[in-house]
Amino acid sequence: MYMNVLTWNIKAGQNKDGSYPIPKTKNLDRIAEAVKDSKASAACFQEVDACTLRSGIKIHQAAYIADKLTSITGKAWNYEHIVSKNMNPGYYGNAILSCYPLTTALKISLPKVNSREDRSFLLTRVDGDNFCTYVGTFHLGLQGDHSIQAQQIKDILNNKGYFNKRLILGGDLNAREGSDTYDIMINHGFPMIDIGPAGVCTLNCYNNPDNPKIDFLFMRGLSTYVLRSEVLSADISDHRPVKLCQC
């Protein structure tokens, strides 16, 4: 049973400085090519726009990237999307894409407490060849909201019995290794493993490679014997993707 997974905050298709390329699909094409080159079979994306004024009223970014991956890989890519914020028009949230059949298992709203934005958590069931794995993605808030929201995620997964499933959770923690939020994801409710790599920058690395790692892949119920992880040196958005390879 093998599945390579990637997590990436794609910054709504913006350039790393917050501007938009011309055309606005240029970075989406680059993201799809990076996913293809990584040989990922599932991708967790955060900061994904759907039909907004800023990113293109006719562009659903998750659907666009899935279609692009279908075109360049020769495999049918599927996607599931969750709304974090209504942009009027359109929406902003998270998405999971896979070249395997994909169905939504859970959609969890994570309302703001101290910060300015609501966040969300999406869990999908990915049905591969003779196996299934639950793959989730999260984008947690700021100003202490990340700890509250991490606890909400772990509590719901625990209460709904996902603690004994094969789980891979990828996303933007907005907190670094060793933080209280990190400890919640690793230890509270049921244990998970930080797949790594440890101590590698994922945020604004083009400015300072010593910046913290705030993007993570957590796992439970899968063998660690053949795991390898890496942060890919792709500076399309202000975050770098983290990849898990089961090989």
Automatic annotation (TrEMBL):
BP GO terms, sorted: GPI anchor biosynthetic process
- Superkingdom, taxonomy of origin: Bacteria
Q: State one molecular function term (GO).
A: endonuclease activity
What organism is the protein native to?
Acidilutibacter cellobiosedens
Report what the protein is called: Endonuclease/exonuclease/phosphatase
**Gene Ontology CC:** membrane
Q: Does the keyword Nucleus apply?
A: no
In terms of SUPFAM superfamilies, this protein maps to: DNase I-like (SSF56219)
Which Pfam families does this entry report, sorted A to Z? Exo_endo_phos
Endonuclease/exonuclease/phosphatase domain location: 6-239
Assigned keywords, A-Z: Endonuclease, Exonuclease, Hydrolase, Nuclease
Q: Any keyword Hydrolase?
A: yes
